[in-house]
Amino acid sequence: MEVSIQKTRNLSTKRGFLFWTIALTILLTVVVVGAIAIGSTYIEPGEVYKVLLSKLSNGTLFGDVGTVMTQNIIWEIRFPRVLLGALCGAGIALCGVLMQCVTKNPIAEPYMLGISSGASCGAVAVIVLGGISSIGINSISVGAFIGSILSGVLVFAIGTQMGKTTSTTRLVLTGMAISTIFSALTNLLIYSADNSNQAKNALFWTIGSLGGAKWDVLLFPFIILVIVMIITFIMSKSLDILLLGDDSAIILGINVKMIKSIILVLATLLTSSLVAITGAIGFIGLVVPHISRTIAGSDHKKLIVLSSLMGAIFLIVSDVLARGLFPPIEIPIGIITALIGGPFFLYLISKKNYSFGGND
Questions:
Q1: Angle subtended at Cα 267 by Cα 173 and Cα 140, rounded to the nearest 5 degrees
Q2: Which has the closest alpha carbon to 311: 24, 3, 12, 15?
Q3: Kind and range of the H or E element at 221?
Q4: Residues 297, 357: contact at Cβ < 8 Å?
Q5: 8 Å CB contact between 246 and 256
Q6: Of the four listed, 142, 195, 225, 352, which is most buried by Cβ atoms within 10 Å?
């Protein structure tokens, strides 16, 4: 009888996961079309849908739809921006899942572990001090990438003593210290800016924006995101076991040091590739994994899928609000994610039945 009850529960859980995966995929499709339709020039969602299918099928479906201007707005401006929002939202949410698992700390995310702060510092340094001018406008992204990689290497080297220790407390404290140092350097750079335009551009970068979206910047973060998702999906069982604690994981045959090192490197690489384009966008890596955990529990296979879908939806909707609340002014997207994510996160942790997973 117990076996029968367990089978029924497992089947129910699988159906629930399948339901949420399908529902979120449909919602993501609707949100993508809606986000493209909304803007300074409103475009009917039906026309957006037809233009996208026409472009994706090379004109096989629906032929030549809409005016040239409408096609350019949809295909060259808004669709890349929405795709960047989806990539960034999914990627940062995934990094949040991984870092919360590795540190076994429910408030761990790329922002808290210093990676986003490092990226902001690198970008602001290029804006205020100049440099790397030979690569033009991409110099800011290069500066952000170098800053995030530098902070990630410092956190890993100091927090794990080059992989010799698995102390999560040491890792989290190191991340917080590195984040504080880079934030202080960023503020110092902004304070020393020569003019208000430099300070304004630098400040905007520290709060994030999808304004840099172009087709040619999407390929690299997309490839990194796919690689990280595949590897973490393969390692999902080990991640589940890590939540039981390091000692239990070692007894069960898990190479804790190697798994944690791989995850930290992957999360740093993914965060760096995304933040180098969008700037530091907080709260997604913190909030979305917790929302997903209320549905998927601590099963990382499900968490990876649901968090990626929810992260993509969350950031696309936030960007629509950032563009549309006070037109023609665009609000930094980090303000929107914090205003939505903060109160919702407080609501989640105030619930009596909330659980982080594992032994918690």
A1: 95
A2: 24
A3: helix 215-234
A4: yes
A5: yes
A6: 225
Amino acid at 293: R
> What's the predicted TM-score (pTM) here?
0.84
First vs last Cα of the chain: how many Å apart?
A: 29
Give the contacts of 298 (CB within 8 A, at least 6 positions apart).
240, 243, 356, 357, 358
Q: Is the pLDDT of residue 287 over 90?
A: no
Q: Average the pLDDT over 66-85 and give the result.
A: 90
CA distance 119 to 127: 13
- What was the pLDDT predicted at 84? 94
Q: How far is CA 295 from CA 48, 130, 310, 337, in A?
A: 32, 47, 12, 21
Q: Are residues 287 and 341 in contact, defined by beta-carbon separation less than 8 angstroms?
A: yes
Neighbours of 244 (CB within 10 A): 17
Say whether pLDDT at 138 is over 70. no
The separation between CA 217 and the C-alpha centre of its own chain, rounded to angstroms, equals 16
State both tokens at 128. 């205020």
Residue pointed to by tokens 């040619």: 216
Give residue-wise pLDDT tens across range 310-334: 999 999 999 999 888 887 788 888 8
